[in-house]
Please model this.
Amino acid sequence: MEAEAVRDVCLAASGLLSRKVGGPSVRPPQAAGISELTYANSAKWVESKGEDRHRRGLYTWFQRTSPYPMLMTFDAPDANVCVMRRERSTTPLQALTLLNDPVFFECAASLCGILKAESGSDASRLRQGMLRSAGRPPSPDEEATLWGFLTTARAKFAGKDDAEGRAWTVVARLLLNLESVPVRE
Model:
């Protein structure tokens, strides 16, 4: 899946995606120091604020000397050529990006808030999380795995501040990193 679409799916699942259409390019959050790698440190990446921070990937500013890292990780074509079909791959670096990129941390935190606010049982929250992230209900095996993961996370964070929030954030991060989220046909 294209980088823009991966980011957009996660933003939509977390309720953060801005539906604003048109306007200038935006600069979503990226890891510190990336823009300093440009030629002679000539580009300054000033993160967009408010609604623009979560605009569709289509509006992401493309700096040739220091492109938005997620675009390169998820197979964005060279900006100097026209392509008929974009390359697609699934790599460990993409999985690490989904786990560690600042945008996906925000998405996981927001999805966590949505799931915690959901009324009903933990099982219904897990089903809702799967519906929001993968667009389908979990299979019985997946539901059992998610339940076990939540139980393990709760045990790990027991006794810490906001243990329940931490456990659900870990579950949200897992849900956004499922193979069926970034790889859709």
Observations:
- The helical segments are 3-13, 69-73, 92-100, 102-117, 122-134, 140-157, 163-176.
